[in-house]
Structures are given as structure tokens and as C-alpha cells.
From TrEMBL:
InterPro entries: CheY-like_superfamily, OmpR/PhoB-type_DNA-bd, Sig_transdc_resp-reg_C-effctor, Sig_transdc_resp-reg_receiver, WalR-like, WH-like_DNA-bd_sf. It comes from Parafrankia soli. Residues 129-227 form the OmpR/PhoB-type domain. GO terms for molecular function: phosphorelay response regulator activity; transcription cis-regulatory region binding. This is DNA-binding response regulator.
Length: 243
């Protein structure tokens, strides 16, 4: 049973969402402020955190940063309706998804299930256990690990899915709307979500993020992966071993 940490200072929201999550089969811990959230996460490590940005004491963005500093746990953030700057900042901080208030508890449960499912399954369009290689990058799709020049790179769920998708389609340009549908599974939404994730990926995998060579911008279209990639043996396999 997956454990969800719900962080919201509104007791009504917390009670309703907790009930929906419990009915969906999740074990739910709650916290009403940022400091309590960090203490609970340390005591009972969650599989996913639902995090309101507007919290007393320690703000939600700082909670997200501190959670990220201690390893990767998926985060679905709750933001005020129309607060685009909050959504972008939250995604830049490392949140995997967001839901705007007011929201349907059922929609939130679906988002939680989607993020957790993506955490444990290969990205869209990938079968088997291929390893994608190119430009110093090694992406173990099934293991959901990435390394550059032999050093592990820590990515969020959506960052990994986006990178794997683009690596599987080298030389093809995709619009932000298409990437939002193919990677996030959304047929509508704020395409700035894609922009933020591409920027974060560049910061993590490009030798020079200000002059990207892997994830390039195609003006008037969107983004393209400019590396030729090949499927290889799983990371750690002996390439000389016979079948």
C-alpha cells in the first residue's frame, strides 16, 4: 500500500482529500505546516507528497526544496487558481505535477495515481528494457536511472519521461502541446509546464545549458533531441557475454 503525505493547513480540505485517498487504497499521513511535513516525512517516508504551497511557518516551496535535497519523492503541488508564477516556480523547484484550487478530490486522486504509476513503469512508447545512449548520456528506461559521463543524474518522474521520450525520437521536433499530451497524458493544460521541464533538464544534462546541444529549440515548433541514440544492454551488463 502506497503512503501519501498530505500537507495542507485547511482542515476541511485535508479531511476531504484524506478520505478520498484512503478510499482509493492509500495510507495517508497529514501535516498542517511545513515543519510538521518535514518531520513526518523523515519519520515515515512517503511514496508521494501532496503539498499546498501556501503554508504557515515554512512555505511549501521550501518544503519541496528540502524534500528534494534528501532524495527523490514525487510531489503533487496544490496552487491557487490562476497563480501561473506559483506553478512555474513549483515545477522549477522539482514538483512532478500540480492541481489548481478549487479542485475535484477525484481529480487529485487520479493525478496521484498517475504520478505513482509513472514512477514504477517505463515511460510512454518504450517496451522491454532498452538502454538509450548518446552524447555521454546513459538512460536505463526500466530502471529509470540516468547517468552522464558516468555520474548519476537525479531527475523527477516527469523529467525522466520527457527525456526518454525525446531520446526515443531523435531528430524529430515536437510542439509543447504534443509533448504535454504524449508525456503528461494531458489533452489540455498550461504548456509552460513543458518549457519549465526542458529548462530543468538542460541544467542537469547539458555541458553548457546556455547553449544546448542535446535538447534544442526549434523556433516556431518546439523541441528536438539532436542525438542519435541506440538501444544497448542494460546498465551493468557484460557486452562481451554471449547469448
Amino acid at each position: 500500500m502506497a503512503r501519501v503525505l498530505l500537507v495542507d493547513d485547511d482542515t476541511t480540505v485535508s479531511d476531504v482529500v484524506s478520505r478520498y485517498l484512503s478510499n482509493a487504497g492509500f495510507e495517508v499521513d497529514t501535516a498542517a505546516d511545513g515543519w510538521a511535513a518535514l518531520a513526518t516525512a523523515e519519520r515515515r517516508p512517503p511514496d508521494l507528497v501532496v503539498l499546498d504551497l501556501m503554508l504557515p511557518g515554512l512555505p511549501g516551496l521550501e518544503v519541496c526544496r528540502r524534500l528534494r535535497a534528501h532524495g527523490h519523492v514525487p510531489v503533487v503541488m496544490l496552487t491557487a487558481l490562476g497563480a501561473e508564477s506559483d506553478r512555474i516556480t513549483g515545477l522549477e523547484t522539482g514538483a512532478d505535477d500540480y492541481v489548481t484550487k478549487p479542485f475535484s478530490p477525484r481529480e487529485l486522486v487520479l493525478r496521484v495515481q498517475s504520478v505513482l504509476r509513472r514512477t514504477h513503469e517505463p515511460p510512454p512508447g518504450v517496451a522491454g528494457r532498452p538502454v538509450l545512449r548518446g552524447g555521454g548520456l546513459v538512460v536505463d528506461v526500466a530502471g529509470r536511472t540516468v547517468s552522464r559521463d558516468g555520474r548519476e543524474v537525479s531527475l523527477t518522474v516527469r523529467e525522466f519521461d520527457l527525456l526518454a521520450f525525446l531520446l526515443r525520437h531523435p531528430g524529430e521536433a515536437f510542439s509543447r502541446a504534443v509533448l504535454l499530451e504524449r508525456v503528461w497524458g494531458w489533452t489540455y493544460g498550461d504548456t509552460s509546464t513543458v518549457t519549465v521541464h526542458v529548462r530543468r533538464l538542460r541544467e542537469k544534462i547539458e555541458p553548457d545549458p546556455t547553449s544546448p546541444a542535446v535538447l534544442t529549440t526549434v523556433w516556431g515548433v518546439g523541441y528536438r533531441c539532436d542525438l542519435a541514440t541506440v538501444a544497448g544492454p542494460a546498465v551493468g551488463a557484460d557486452p562481451a557475454a554471449g547469448g
